[in-house]
Each structure stands twice: as C-alpha cells, then as structure tokens.
Amino acid sequence: MVHLSIKKTIAIIGAGPCGLSQLLAFKQAEQDQLVELVCFERQAEWGGLWQYTALTGTDSCGEPIHSSMYRQLWSNGRAKAGDIRKFIQFRTAVRTVDFDDNTKKFHVTTEDLTNQLTKYLTFDHVIVASGHYTIPNMPDFEGISKFPGRVLHSHDYRGADEFVNKNLLIIGSSYSAEDIAMQCYKFGARSITISYRSCPMSFRWPDNVKEVPLLQKIKGRTAYFKDGTNVDNLDCIIVCTGYRHNHSYMAENLRFRTVGNLYVPPSLYKGIFWYAEPQLAYLGMQNQLYTLNMFDIQAALVRDVFLGYVTLPDDKSQKQRQKDISEWQAREQTLSLDDHEAFSNLQTDYIRDIISCCDQNTVPKFDLERSNAGMYKFFQDKRDNILTYRDQPFHSIFFPDKEAPTSETPWIKNTDDSIEGFLQSIKTV
C-alpha cells in the first residue's frame, strides 16, 4: 500500500447516496491524515434524491427542487453513524469546475446560497456525485400544451391521493410509470392508460389499467395513439419519461454527456473515471438495477485509485481506457430492452469487475450471486402478479438465513405509507 507524504485535496459534489458512499469510503484515509475532504451539497440536508420534500419547482434560494421522491417511497441510511456530516457544506452550489493541464489541478467555483458568497477553490481530484434523476426529460407531443387538465412529470408527483376518481394517462414504460400507475390504482383512480414507446410492460394489469402504443397527439381531453385508438375524458397526464444528465457546471472538456439512461455510460472508464482525465470521477451515472451496494463499490475503487492503493489494469493511455469502455458498450448493445435478467447479469458482471480492481482488504463484500438471484425473483414476482409482488419477502445478501419481514396487511390494502405504520404491521417471527 502506498502512503502519501502530501495530503490529497478532494472535492465531492453532492451529498446524496453516491456522495455519502464516497465520504464513508474516504473516512479512514481522512483519519490517517491522507486526504482533505469537502463535500458540496446544494440542499439544506443530505440524502439527495431520497430527501423527501412536498415542495416542487424551486426552493427558498431559487434553486430547482432536487428530489423526485413521493410519500409512498422512503429509505433510511447509515450516514449519521458514519460521522461524516462534518465534511459537508450545505446550501452550497457548485457553479463551475475546470482543469489546469499545467498544474494538474481542478479549479472549483462555489456559491454559499444562504449568504450569497462566492469562493474559488483548488483541488487535486473532483468526484461528481450529484446524480441524474432530477432534471426531467419532457418530450413534446402535439396538443399537450393545450390540454385543459393537469400535466406533470413524475419528478413532481408527490402522492396518489389527488388522483382519486380521475382518468389518468401515464406516458412511459419503466419503473416510475409502473409504480405510479399502481399507486394511483390502489388509491382509487377511475382509469389508467399507460402509453409506451418501444416495449409494453405486459403485466397482468387490473381491469381499469391498460397499455397502449405511443401517444401521437392530444386534442381537448382526448389522447390519440399510434395504433389508431384513443382515450376520452382525461383528467391528468403524468409523464414518466425519465431524466436528462445535466452537469452544466462542468467545463466542456470535462462534461459527461449521454443520450438515454445506459447501463454502460460513454466516456467513463470502468463506468467511473473520465476517460481523458482520470483525476475526475463520476459516480452512479449508469442505469441502475443495483444501487447503494454498487455506489459503495464504485466509491471504494475511487478511493483506492486516488490514494494510489491500486493501479487499474488498462489505465496507461486514453486509447486503452476507451477500448475498455467500447467492449462493455458492445455487450449492452446486444441485449433486448425487455430482457431484464440479461441487464441484471450485465450489471452483476460490471460490479464483479470493479471489485476485482479494488484493494481486496478493504472493498465492501456482499453476495453478488444471491443479489442477482434476488433480482430474478423480483422480476418473476412482478410477472406473476403486479399487485402482490411487493408482499413477497427477500433474503438478505449479507445474512443468508435472514428473510425480510412482511406486512400483515397486503400492499394493495395498506394505505398507511409511513415507516411507523410499516413497523407496526410487519409479521414477527
């Protein structure tokens, strides 16, 4: 293991799940006085996407609301126990990041949103952990701007109770579309029409839920679809068409760009390091089946590479880094969009590759095969019954003999979405 004689200065952008994983990974190195860490967080609290707020639009400082969370989703974490809050500067937005080829340093401009103070800082490394599920992708459809009902993106969806007895059109065919459709069904929407672009989800939907091909136009309260069918008397349109990667604060030559939400992001060596300048890392930029565990593994590799604990096998030239990226991209391009198990295998193999590159003494360990099998079961449970798959227990990937508790009340009948309500309802063994 290499021991550094001079502290590395490292900036982390974002204190959401990825940023917190990175801070936890660096914690021991900071205690050993190997690094100086600072994490910039635009919000007043950590948690990123998982920091629920009822607000939509902009916050009190005029910044866009980051969270896409709604009441029927919640999570808890380990950040408090990790004692990493001291590294985070809250209400601080990163405005610019550029790189000096001569000094090999990053210049970062930040703004204190509370006091309107601008700072100009220099770092050895920058880690972008600001996520990519916050800038809505809003496709334009003929007539949608004149629709007399409500139009919203899933980013601004906060709960199903406002859609009771409403006729809904949901545009999209991924997790948000499926989940919001079932939440609205559960809370009493009158009818739900789901419009897909490429592949229908093809679950066994309840009677008042149906899938139709791509929306062509809106006229009044009527939607017309690619197959010639239409739906009348719509009250609301919920657009679940994903998000755009937006890193406008990064200099042009450092800015990650992609078309679509890919499992193998372009320009990122090992899905993490900027191909042209590996002193820069992006965390969690890929489409995700694995989430928090993958972020921990990525953060471990960033730590090991930036502190010189490991040397990556292909990190000798930009050409070799691009070759590694291209090989993973070629594999993704062979997969069918509706083959969820194949994408699970792809991301499992990706994580296995990242683990193999890390310092084996410190990399987080979990049972990849059990985790992948759990995702297979998740997909099959949904195919079996879209209304009951949430009631199925899963086994821990850390403790093989432990199974998740299940609720006494089936999900479809349980309208108490609080943590307290869940804890009171679970079956005790």
Structure in words:
This protein is of the alpha/beta class and 429 residues long. It folds into three domains: 8-135 and 245-357, FAD/NAD(P)-binding domain (3-Layer(bba) Sandwich); 144-239, FAD/NAD(P)-binding domain (3-Layer(bba) Sandwich); 368-425, no CATH class. The protein has helices at residues 17-31, 175-186, 292-306, 318-333, 340-357, 368-384, 419-425, and strands at residues 8-13, 35-40, 88-89, 92-100, 105-112, 117-123, 125-128, 150-153, 167-171, 191-195, 209-212, 215-219, 222-225, 230-231, 236-239, 268-269, 273-274, 280-282. The strands form five sheets. Strands 3-2-1-7-18 form a five-stranded parallel beta sheet, with helices on one face. The chain has a five-stranded parallel beta sheet with strand order 8-15-9-10-11, with helices on one face. Helix 1 runs parallel beside helix 3. The longest helix has 18 residues, at 340-357. Its EC number is 1.-.-.-. One of its GO terms (molecular function) is N,N-dimethylaniline monooxygenase activity.
